[in-house]
Write a structure and sequence with these properties.
By secondary structure, the protein is of the alpha/beta class. It has 2 domains: 163 residues, 3-Layer(aba) Sandwich (Rossmann fold), CATH 3.40.50; 79 residues, SIR2/SIRT2 'Small Domain' (2-Layer Sandwich). It is elongated, with a radius of gyration of 19 Å. The structure holds nicotinamide-adenine-dinucleotide and zinc ion.
């Protein structure tokens, strides 16, 4: 793996590892880019097939759901079908490994994600989800949680595009996702703000840093004295970043985390 990284990048990874080893509190924000190598398209990737003519921003909104609930529900069922067989990649696994080793290296790590997939959890991490969960549903009117037969654990996944009526109020069931124009879950946002304001290092992995308020977390960390590390093959124009690792997360994270946990300088 190290052989795939350029000498310049290896030196930067070394620098990042040094910073991370001396940090006590680390706040990590991940975005769609960390799941790209697992085969889940980011929002900036053009949609394919049936959905080619739609922009994600025009489907993931309360206005879109009010206008055409069937269209939006069908799109999410299609996304679920696209994501259901995807597995964590080396970046998710490296973060999980670091989280589980963190107590023994006297570090406190808060992992915050903008992703709605569950690849961090599949890798064994605990993550704070700012934008909700692709696999959960709730009522668009009364907010009650909707579970599709919770006892049928072995039931094949159902990607039916038929709208579902809420058993409580009869309105439509929607995915439990924070759409454009909606506010973030209060508890998750509070955890994120506290972790960002009180960390030594803030790491931003695979996010375009365009979607607020999540994009403001790095600024909050910086204002409170943290150093900011970004991992993104297309570095963002963010002015708060101190160190950029311009590479794919799946290539760079295992090397970086190995250096942090095992203090290895290979
Ligand atoms: P984004 O699509 O705006 O940006 C993705 C970023 O990842 C880009 O800057 C890109 O250069 C970078 N990237 C691409 N491949 C990478 C790799 N291999 N390693 C590291 N970085 C890589 O995504 P965002 O910033 O997360 O914000 C958009 C919104 O999209 C979020 O609200 C999120 O909820 C939603 N979303 C989630 C998923 C998911 O759950 N997997 C997928 C698509 C969109
Ligand atoms: Zn309801």
């Amino acid at each position: 793996m190290v052989a795939e990284l350029s000498a310049e990048l290896i030196a930067q990874v070394q620098q990042a590892a040094q910073l991370l080893r001396s940090a006590k509190r680390i706040c990590i924000l991940t975005g769609a880019g960390i799941s790209a190598e697992s085969g889940i398209p980011t929002f900036r990737d053009k949609q394919t097939g049936l959905w080619e003519k739609f922009r994600a921003e025009d489907l993931a909104s309360p206005v879109a759901f009010a206008r055409d609930p069937k269209l939006v529900w069908s799109w999410y069922q299609w996304r679920r079908q696209l994501v259901h067989d995807k597995a964590p990649n080396p970046a998710h696994r490296a973060l999980a490994q670091w989280q589980s080793a963190s107590a023994s290296v006297q570090q406190h790590i808060t992992l915050i994600t903008q992703n709605v997939d569950d690849l961090h959890e599949q890798a064994g991490s605990e993550a704070v989800h700012l934008h909700g969960h692709l696999w959960k549903n709730r009522c668009s009117q009364c907010d009650s949680v909707y579970e599709d037969d919770p006892n049928a654990k072995d039931k094949p996944l159902d990607f039916d595009e038929q709208l579902i009526a809420c058993p409580q109020c009869g309105d439509y069931i929607r995915p439990d996702i924070v759409w454009f124009g909606e506010s973030l879950p209060v508890a998750a946002w509070q955890t994120a703000e506290e972790a960002a304001a009180d960390c030594d290092i803030f790491m931003s992995i695979g996010t375009s840093s365009l979607v607020y308020p999540a994009a403001g977390l790095a600024q909050l960390a910086k204002q409170n004295g943290a150093q900011i590390i970004e991992i993104n093959p297309n570095p963002t124009p963010s002015t708060v970043v101190d160190l950029t690792l311009a590479a794919k997360a799946g290539a760079v994270m295992p090397v970086l985390i190995d250096k942090v946990i095992n203090k290895s300088d290979k």
